[in-house]
Amino acid sequence: APAGRMPESRWRTRPDRSTWGDFGPDDVLGRMNLVGPEQVRRGLAEVHDGITFCLSLALDQPGGTVLGPNRFPPVVRPTLRSGAVNFNCDMGVAHPGATDVVNDDLVVLHTQYSTQWDALGHIGARFDADGDGTPETVYYNGWRAGTDVTGPVGAARAGAASLADIEGIAQGTASSSDAGPVDISHLAGHGVQGRAVLVDLEAHYGTTRAAIGYEELAAVLDIDRVTVEAGDILLLHTGFTRNLIDSNGRPRPDATGDCAVLDGSDPRLREWIRDSGVAAIAADNHAVEAFPDPKAEPGRPVLPLHRLCLFELGIHLGELWWLSDLARHLRRTGRSRCLLTAPPLRLPRATGSPVTPIATV
Ligand code: UVW
């Protein structure tokens, strides 16, 4: 029988050793529940220099469609006022006598194009949650596709909101209400502030291809004397986003291969993540783990760490963060921890969110 509290209807069986129900039958925050007042105090205790680091790339930075063929740079457009472009616009038109000039714009954003959080609704699985012998499409804590995780408005009709929808969005014909329970807005409500611990894989592996399993990670933790405790947010510096910037946004398709990257197929690494109690994991590469998993077999996930973290344990994943400046400062000062503040957009129904994380040291 599952140890977690079982909701009446959504699931009877949960994935083996998952956290479903452990934070309540209707939980949507997962391990972020471990980041409470004590973690904020622990984070604040890491502030010594009063220096802040912005951990995001520019929103239009990552390498075109190389990193994700369905994701495009943001489109920023002026809004329309009575059919006319509302940019460098004389306020006197609407308010006679006014001397102001006004600009107003809208943006169409692929939420996971650049520095981002994956919501728990980003990756689900076909899993027999109600135990009737037939798998359903479910997400963390048994939240169901179709009823709980419904996606952006229009998704069922026409695929994800496309650039063609821009006028409709501008005129308010597409609205998003009715937030699904596993979207990113709940995380925004939490605030995502606590202690982060940075593991500097780049300092040890440089720009060599390296699959980081448990053994490699444990060696780096040991050499750098890094301790990871329950409730910490784990930051993994690999040098990937610096490669991205050095290539002027045109990375080679195999650019992840030039850096250390987690080997999601290593069962000992997955056990370490489970046992460590980390609240979230953010990396400066595009999938945290090697994607697609080179050792994936038919019938198995191609994103085994996404499955473990987002689906089984409720660990949010951050991707394409800019960690190189923070890593350099921490190495120079012989530290590995900081206060991290990283709320996503409070955007109901989104399954990922751009984020501008701030580290304070
Ligand atoms: C996919 O969407 C495949 O992965 P990621 O979470 O790395 O963007």
Automatic annotation (TrEMBL):
Region Disordered: start-end pairs: 1-23
Entry superkingdom: Bacteria
Gene3D superfamilies xref list: Putative cyclase (3.50.30.50)
Pfam families: Cyclase
Biased composition (Basic and acidic residues): 7-19
Organism: Streptomyces prunicolor
Name listed for the protein in its UniProt record: Cyclase family protein
InterPro entries in the record: KFase/CYL, KFase_sf
Coiled coil: none
